[in-house]
Amino acid sequence: MQAFARRAVSGFGVVLGVVTLMFALLRLAPGDPALLLVGPAATAEQVAAQRHALGLDRPLPAQYAAWLGRFAQGDWGTSIATGRPVRTMLARAWPATVRLVGISLVLSYLIGIGIGVVQATRGGWLDTALSVATVTLFALPGYWLGLMMVMLFTYWLRWLPAFGAAGFDADFLPPAARLADRLRHLTLPLVTLTLVGIGGTARFVRGAMLDVAGAPFVTVARAKGLSERRVTLHHVLRNALIPVLTLLGLSLPTLFSGAVFIEAIFAWPGVGRVLVEAVQARDYPVVMAATAVSAVLVVLGNLLSELLVHVADPRVR
Amino acid sequence: MRGEARGLFHDRRAAVGAAVLAVAVLGALLAPLLAGDPIAQHDIVLTRFLPPLATDPLGAFHLLGTDRFGRDVWARLIYGARVSLGVGVLAVLLSVLIGVAVGAAAGFWRGWLATALLGLTDFALALPRVVLLLLLASLWRPSAGLVIVVLGLTGWMTIARLVYAEVRALAGRPFVESAVGLGVPGPRILLRHILPNAMTPVIVATALGLGNAVLLEAGLSFLGLGVQPPTPSWGNLIASGRDTLVNAPWVATAPGVALVLVVVAATLLGDAVRDRLDPGKVG
Predict the structure, then answer these.
(1) What per-residue confidence (pLDDT) applies to B278?
(2) Does residue A106 register a pLDDT over 70?
(3) Can you tell me the distance from the alpha carbon of B159 to that of B22, in angstroms, rounded to the nearest whole number?
C-alpha cells in the first residue's frame, strides 16, 4: 500500500514536470509566447489579454504560478484552429484512445505471451520461424503497416473501412447494426496496433521464460514427477510473468507513442489524432494540453501495472 | 572483449544483420554511382506514375517506377537512405553522449548529484517519446538537424541507466581504489579506467537504438515534421505515396520495405552482440 502511495506521488510529480517543461519550452521557443497561444489571426486585444493571463510583465516565479494555476483549474485555453475550448476537445477524444490502446494492450499481451511460451517450450525450427516473425513485427513502422492494411483490406478487398470510429450514417442505424459498424471501424487500427505490440512482447516473454526455465526450482519440480505441462504453465510461466507485468508498465509510453501514428493514419478520433492535427496546424494550446493528457494516461497506466505486479508477486506484498 | 567479439559472426543473426546494414550504408554512401538525380523533374506528364521496371518515353529506365512528379523512386530511395541512416546514426550518437555523461556522473560521484540525475532520467522515461518529439518539433522549424537534436534528447535515458549500473559496480573495484589512492584525479579515473570497461551495455543499446531512431526519423518526416521535401527521406517518401496507394502502391511500399530491412538488421545485430557479450541477460 505504501509503495502504491509512493508511486502515485511520483506520478503526480511526472505530470507536474510535464506542465513545467511546457512552461519552459513556450518561453525558449522562437516567437512571442502570447502570440503563439492566440494564433496569427488574433486581434490586438486578444493578444493583450493573453499577455495578461500569462503574466509576461511579471517576474518569472509569478508567471510559473499563474501557469500552474490555469492548468489546475482546468483552463486549458481555446484552440486556435477550431475556436473551441481545448478541454472539451480532449474530453471527447480521450475515451477513444483508451478504448483503442486498452484493447490492443490486452490482446497483444495475451497473444505475445502465447507465442513466447510456444517459442520457449518447443524450440527448433518453430522457434526460429517465430523469431523471424516477431523481429519483423517489432521492426515494422506502425503507420506503414497501417497503410499496407488499408491498401489490402479497404482498397483491394473492400472488406473493412479505413477511417474514423463510426460511419457517417451510424446515428441512424439500429443498435445491433451500429455496434457492428463500430466494430468494423475498430478492426484495422486495432489489428495494426496489436501486431506491432506482439513483436516486442513475444521477444521479451521468450527471453523471460528461457531465463526462468534454467532456475533450480524448475529442476526440482520436474524431479518431483510433475507433468511437463504443469511445470511449464504453473511454475515457469507464473514466474516469468512477473518481469512481463513490469514490462507492461514500462512499455505504456511506447504503446501510446505508436497509437499516435495509428490514430493519425486511421483518423481515429482520439488524443493522438488531436495532437497530430494540432501540431501540423501549430495549434499550441491544444498541443500543450494533449501532451499533458498523454502523460497523465501513461502515469495512470503505470499505476495499474504496479497494482498488477503487487497482486501477482507474493514477494512484493 | 575483443576475444569474445571475434566469434561474433559465427552467430547467423550477427552475420545477416551486419551484412544488411553494410549493404545499406554502402548504398547510401555510393548513391551518386547507383542512381540518377532524385530531385530533378523531367516532363511530368510523360513520366509520372510509371510502374517498376518501366522505361519512360524519354529513354530512362526506372527500377522501382516513378512518383507523382515523374521522379525515379529508386533514386529517391537510395538518396533517402543517406538522410534516414545519417540522421539515425547521428541521433544515436547524441543519445549515447548524453546518456554516458549522465550515467557515469551519477554512478561515480553518487550523493545528491546521482539522486537528481536519476530523478531526471526516470521523469524522462515516463514521457511518451513520440508525444515529446511532436511537441518539440512543432515549436521549432522542421529540418534534419532538429530531428537529430530532438531524437538525441529523448533517447538517452536507457543508456544512462545502464551506464549508471555499470559505473557504480566498477567504482567499487580494487583497481579504482588504487587509482584514487595514487592521486589520479576523479574525471581521469572515470574516462580512462572505468568507462572503457563499462561499454558493453552501451554497444548493445546503440545497435538497438539505431533501429528505433531510424523508425522515429521516418515517422516524424512522415508527419511533415522532419526532413522536408524535395529532399528525400524514407519517411516523407511513404507520406508522398500515401495518397496514391491505389494507383501507384510502389511509391509507399518500397521505402517501408527498406525501413523494415534496416531495422530488423540493426535489431538482430544488437541481439547477437548482447547474447555474445552478456549471455546472462534476459532476452
Answers:
(1) 60
(2) yes
(3) 24
The one-letter amino acid code at A286 reads: V
All 3 cell numbers of residue A185?
Answer: 471501424
Q: Is any Cβ of chain A less than 8 angstroms from the Cβ of B97?
A: no
Q: Which three cell numbers stand for residue A265?
A: 493514419
Grid coordinates 487500427 are at which residue? A189
Cell of A20: 513545467
Supply the pLDDT for residue B281.
Answer: 43
CB contact under 8 A, B126 and A302: yes
Model confidence at B282: pLDDT above 50: no
Nearest by Cα to B247 from B51, B1, B103: B51
Does the interface predicted TM-score (ipTM) exceed 0.90?
Answer: no
The 10s digit of each residue's pLDDT in B12-36 is 777 888 888 888 888 888 888 877 7
**Contact criterion met (CB < 8 Å) for B128 and A204:** no
Residue whose C-alpha is closest to residue A300's, from A89, A14, A68, A87: A14
CA distances from A144 to A74, A135, A178, A262, B276 (A): 36, 16, 29, 9, 32
- Residue B222 makes CB contacts below 8 A (sequence gap 6+) with A141, A143, A261, B235, B236, B238, B239
- Asked if the C-beta of B130 comes within 8 angstroms of chain A's C-beta atoms, the answer is yes
Residue to substitute from A90, A132, A144, interface B, most B β-carbons within 10 A: A144
| Amino acid found at B159 | I
pLDDT category at A195 given cuts 50, 70, 90 is very high
For A203, residues 6+ apart whose C-beta sits below 8 A from its C-beta are: A116, A131, A134, A135, A138, B283
The predicted-structure confidence for A175-184, as pLDDT tens digits, reads as follows 888 888 888 8
Q: What is the mean pLDDT of residues A282-311?
A: 82
Mutate to test the interface with B, among A113, A143, A236 (most CBs of B within 10 A): A143
By C-alpha distance, which of A52, A75, A63 is closest to A27?
A63
From the list A135, A151, A208, the residue facing B249 with the nearest CB is A151
**Where would I find the beta strands (DSSP E) of B27-145?**
54-55, 61-62
Lowest mean pLDDT among A169-183, A302-316, B73-87: A302-316
| A136·B127 Cβ contact <8 A | no
Q: CA of B51, closest CA in chain A: separation in Å?
A: 17
The confidence score (pLDDT) of residue A229 equals 79
For residue A280, which residues of chain B lie inside 8 Å, CB to CB?
A: 223-225
